[in-house]
Design a protein that fits this description.
The chain has eight helices and seven strands, in the order ββαααβββαβαβααα. It is α/β, with parallel strands linked by helices. The strands form two sheets. The protein has a four-stranded parallel sheet with strand order 3-2-6-7. A three-stranded antiparallel sheet has the order 1-4-5. The termini are far apart.
């Protein structure tokens, strides 16, 4: 009687539909929110997928940015986006991102392809907004990209730089109350004018 050796089938990679394949694409940031009276500049890294889809800064419903701005300068997330941006400008706050463009998979900063980074023209922006002396970074990636791609072109010591905890829902290591306490630092350069403007 012949003896047949069983041959195991070749192992195949699990099938994935197109919607499950990670999408890597070039992403571009928005124009800054600012006017000439700005005294504080808040910088993120690059808008996430939800923000790009909505055409709005920090559009992800779980991002704490607008909730924080609501408590600090009256630009709460339940207001229309245009109203929130007006509140920021009235308070003396400018909002932008360090990166003009990059290649990234998804929304996470960790997925940004470093060689693809193109920084925004911060030199020209600061020249057009000469009252800005304080720059606050929304998270570590924004600060790192600024120091690598922007700071070498700026006059040494011209700006006071400070990193704040990221408002992203991915940064869950700190509670909302801790983030709020840290973000109160943006009010110091604005002094009492922030509260007067929002009465």
């Amino acid at each position: 009687m012949a003896c047949w050796k069983a041959i195991s089938p070749r192992r195949r990679k699990p099938w994935r539909s197109a919607e499950h394949v990670p999408r890597v694409s070039v992403v571009r940031s928005f124009a800054p929110i600012a006017d000439v009276s700005a005294r504080v500049l808040i910088l993120g890294s690059m808008p996430g997928v939800e923000s790009l889809r909505a055409g709005q800064y920090y559009a992800h419903p779980r991002n704490a940015f607008w909730r924080l701005m609501g408590e600090l300068v009256g630009a709460s997330p339940d207001m229309p986006y245009a109203t929130r941006t007006r509140r920021l400008k009235k308070a003396g706050i400018a909002l932008w991102d360090v990166l003009a463009a990059c290649t990234r998979e998804g929304s996470l900063d960790a997925a940004i392809d470093e060689p693809s980074i193109i920084a925004n023209d911060m030199v020209s922006f600061l020249a057009q907004h000469p009252r800005i002396r304080h720059v606050f970074f929304n998270g570590a990636t924004a600060e790192r990209c600024f120091r690598v791609h922007v700071q070498p072109a700026l006059e040494a010591g011209a700006l006071k730089l400070a990193r704040l905890p990221s408002t992203s829902p991915a940064h869950a290591a700190r509670s909302y109350s801790d983030k709020l306490q840290a973000w109160r630092a943006i009010l110091e350069p604005l002094a009492s004018s922030v509260h007067k403007n929002n009465k």
